[in-house]
Write a structure and sequence with these properties.
The protein is mainly beta. It has helices at about 10-15, 90-100; strands spanning about 30, 45-50, 50-65, 70-85, 105-115, 115-135, 140-155, 165-170, 175-180.
């Protein structure tokens, strides 16, 4: 049995009123070497806290005359939405949006605490990304991007906090190929 310590995470409604001070430990991170330098204790990649993210996709489905459901083969990506505090990265994100320059990789991470240690429990990795929208409200920014591939990895731990493996999937929107990740 895997046991996690429950922690509150920021909801979209709470995020604009929440203050993540320097001592706060984030529940979610965004990783991108083009935008960020690591400013989170215990993490070595180019990660910085984000307040929330919203990700997803859909497959178009139709009913046929026999009452069966069928998909037309297309999977449509929902552009990931990321909300975070304004920082030195905001003008860089805008520059990528205005110039149309691709971002090689963007990663999203969900964290949890197991026996008092922060661990990554989910990694979502996007490759060949293009910034699509940017907006600022007070001291928070929201932006969206599109990507060619998405990989979602669930990281598994035992009761002692030891990593015991992971499960995941990777999807390429350009080829429509899905593969298993580990």
């Amino acid at each position: 049995m895997i046991k996690f310590t429950q922690h509150d995470t920021f909801s979209k409604d709470e995020s604009t009123n929440s203050d993540m001070g320097a001592a706060a430990t984030p529940q979610m991170l965004i990783v991108c070497e083009d935008f960020f330098e690591c400013d989170v204790d215990g993490f070595t990649d180019n990660a910085t806290p984000c307040l929330w993210f919203d990700i997803g996709c859909c497959r178009l489905i139709t009913n046929d005359s026999t009452g069966e459901l069928s998909g037309d083969g297309r999977v449509i990506a929902q552009d990931p939405v990321v909300c975070m505090k304004y920082g030195s990265w905001a003008p860089i994100i805008q520059e990528y949006l205005y110039s149309g320059k691709n971002v090689p990789k963007i990663g999203l991470r969900r964290l949890s605490s197991i026996n008092g240690t922060k661990v990554i429990i989910q990694e979502v990795n996007y490759e060949i990304c293009l910034m699509k929208t940017y907006r600022q409200k007070d001291d928070t920014i929201e932006f969206t991007f599109s990507a060619i591939t998405v990989e979602d990895i669930n990281i598994l731990y035992d009761n002692t906090g030891t990593k015991i493996g992971n499960t995941g999937t990777k999807f390429d929107y350009s080829t429509m190929l899905v593969t298993t990740s580990s």
